């Protein structure tokens, strides 16, 4: 069953037109046969295939002011394309990424600060849109987890080393008669 | 018929693996030599059977046997031969078969090269290898049978994902799997050592070559994947902190830590339980990566077909293998007594610092990769953890690691002084400071961080080579042990990677231009002419190709021909970049969308030192192989000290 | 204490595996991006009408005291075809107020599409440059919002709505039994 269903999906060809890139779940169309859960699973597969590794920022979008444009790039690299897998809007050719790039440039041209632009996007798409999560209660562990491990482990190691140093190294017991005799015998061969 | 043969061989392999996974263990605990020697024969038989099975699947691909479902779904008769073959592992089932194959081959390698191992240790290692194999073979047979038939056979297949039809990606998975699966041997050694309750210098010496081999392959595999991303994704990026990349980086970091801590066990009989833990973790993280990529708990740019049912199976397997190993560790490791004492400033101290930092790096990657999942489950909040996060957390942690990396080799065992070590590094120190100044003043005055990172790259190269200076002076360079030479090469090549990545990501030049044939544009001192646009026909695609004539000062310099390929079977477009490299920089061109009326979008990049990233990574692996060829590892079967045995 | 240290790796694994098992069994969709619109007042609406001769769409259309469904669609979008009959049914049988917004669509294309498939929209707007879509946190088409009588977004569906959405959430919402 799984096999035949997969086959069926495989024969459907993805959309080729450019305008279709912004469409999410382009294959949901006439498929009442599959259960909802597995349908979603397979849609994931196809979403992957849709992310074209094409190029993003286009010549027509570039701002005349190079300083503003470079700020726009910096911001664009930190904003996630919401329909892609881990791509920034600068790397994505999806329709919505294009709209977001345009909005970033419009905000900057209107005199917004970088922070304002990020806030503008978060108001619309949530923290999800930030490739660098904000530092707040929900992300404390993310930001501090690894450094904390480093600090605790480092401190523990140093304490252990210090304690070890505090213990005087006990000099070996002097050889007793018996041992000395054996050693002499050995040395003589 | 051949497919059935392959299927049958796989079933037999499972049976053999079951025997190999049980009887030698019994033999080792009873001291029964006959049962123990069974492990060796079984390992060789199992490898032969899986090889047969793999050959059967390859045959189905090469002959385009479309009565096999797997071939239908992933191949096409018009595909070039290379991609018919690489199509075997370009899908979930086939890649799992490749996993099983490499696992069996590593088992056979232990059987063949493990002559110097004590019988009990070898049979335990082989048995544990086989138990892992049982898991994979069962997974294949029960959930992902690559030999499933389809009736009626369709006239042709669906073709391979065009992104995978690329020489870089054809060899990327086998190398990566050689790395992942190679760590199964260190895992098996660790479990065997815990079973025997004995970890000593001899054990460390036995396990290190396997760890080193796995690490070399993993390094090459990661580098190849990154190179592929660089030229296929079309804008010069080379590392994206994607879950799949992170999944390969974590075992690499743990494996690197293992290589270093194993030295301490070998030389100083210390850090034993820690080294065993790393040996377990390197493989566990490889399995974790497999789980993440295939279960569908995370999404990623280049993941395989994802399926929750398979996810559950891999999770159960992960729990069994990793959980079993770690439970055994929790039970037995406390009995491993640490040996040699040392001061914080010493070679041991430096290696511990190395381990501490590498493990923190691995923890950063792990946390960053899994955090969105955790947070979503706990609170329903969606967050993204992408490159800017890792640039802010991972990269700064590299600084102390790199700083210490050059100092470590100058510190003596047990107790050392920092002063003299730094004195011997004074030239490296001066040169790297000069590099920072040069980068700041002559290349880019705005980016202090890039200049600093550039300085670190120079420091790594010069500082690593400095450890050779004494030998050069005394004329004993020829007699240098291969392991030392390998270390120097690997350390220095890390610097090469750093220089390459800093330069290409911070100091590249780019230009985007809409051009029509006949248009000329000036770019970074070059004059680029779009001579013509052609339509070309490949074996299974049609493409638009731009011909760019690049000239310097009126003289022709090079011709670049980027393409946009439309794969006809899948109706997918792929941009094929054109790269001209002189090993100091890449001239990189891609063709975007366009038409004759409005012109085509052409993107040009000049990526300074970009080739060094992969050159450095290849050198890094080469250093590993050089170290692997050290006499000490090849011959001179180390024997266990009787004292330690008595102490047990 | 020392013993605990050796159990720590196992505990970490157990914790992680717990999360993984939870994720696999919860039916969580890893591709879901969530929505920040839910629970907030509906974003600004200021669009020209799609159908010639009608008044432009404004915020007032979302605050009529009655629940409103807002659907973004496009004639080039395949999944939109799948959900369209559901909207037709909602409009005809339940008398729901549905506002359709054509996203990145030429007016003539959108009108022709509606003519062919039937037009369930009480009001229809045209968001050719996708600015309104961005304000609404749209990621593509189709997407659907349920807005209560006070103009608060109660639900945001990304992707086509299904029969199940209809019976489980949309109909109860229209009847006022779901907040």
Write a concise synopsis of the structure shown.
Chain B has 648 residues and is an alpha+beta fold. In chain B, 64% of the residues lie in helices and 12% in strands.
Which descriptors would you attach to this protein?
heterotrimer; A: 189 residues; mainly alpha; Helicase, Ruva Protein, domain 3; 3 domains; rod-shaped; C: 179 residues; alpha/beta; Glutaredoxin; 5-stranded mixed beta sheet; 5 helices; 16% strand
Explain what you see.
The complex is a heterotrimer of chains A (189), B (648) and C (179). Chain A has 3 domains: 2-50, no CATH class; 59-129, Orthogonal Bundle (Helicase, Ruva Protein, domain 3), CATH 1.10.8; 135-167. Helix content of chain A is 55%, strand content 0%. Chain A is built from 7 helices and no strands. Chain A has helices at 2-11, 36-50, 66-78, 95-109, 114-125, 140-166, 177-188. The longest helix of chain A is centred in the C-terminal third of the chain and has 27 residues, at 140-166. The termini of chain A are far apart. Residues 1-54 of chain A have low confidence and may be disordered. By secondary structure, chain B is of the alpha+beta class. Chain B folds into 4 domains: 1-158, no CATH class; 161-413, no CATH class; 414-507; 509-610. Chain B contains 21 helices and 10 strands. In chain B, strands 2, 3, 4, 5, 6 and 7 form a 6-stranded antiparallel beta sheet that branches. Chain B has a 4-stranded antiparallel beta sheet with strand order 1-10-9-8, covered by helices on one side. In chain B, helix 5 (92-113) packs across helix 7. The termini of chain B are far apart. Chain C is an alpha/beta fold. Chain C has a single domain, classed as 3-Layer(aba) Sandwich (Glutaredoxin), CATH 3.40.30. In chain C, 39% of the residues lie in helices and 16% in strands. Chain C has a 5-stranded mixed beta sheet. Chain C is elongated, with a radius of gyration of 21 Å.
Largest interface: A-B, 62 and 71 residues
Total of DSSP H or I helical runs spanning 4+ residues of chain B: 21
SS content category of chain A: mainly alpha
Q: Which descriptor suits the 3D outline of chain B?
A: globular
Helix content of chain A: 55-70%
Keywords (chain B): Cell inner membrane, Cell membrane, Cytochrome c-type biogenesis, Lyase, Membrane, Transmembrane, Transmembrane helix
InterPro entries (chain B): CcmF_C, Cyt_c_assembly, Cyt_c_biogenesis, Cyt_c_biogenesis_CcmF
Pfam family, one (chain B): CcmF_C
Family (chain B): Belongs to the CcmF/CycK/Ccl1/NrfE/CcsA family.
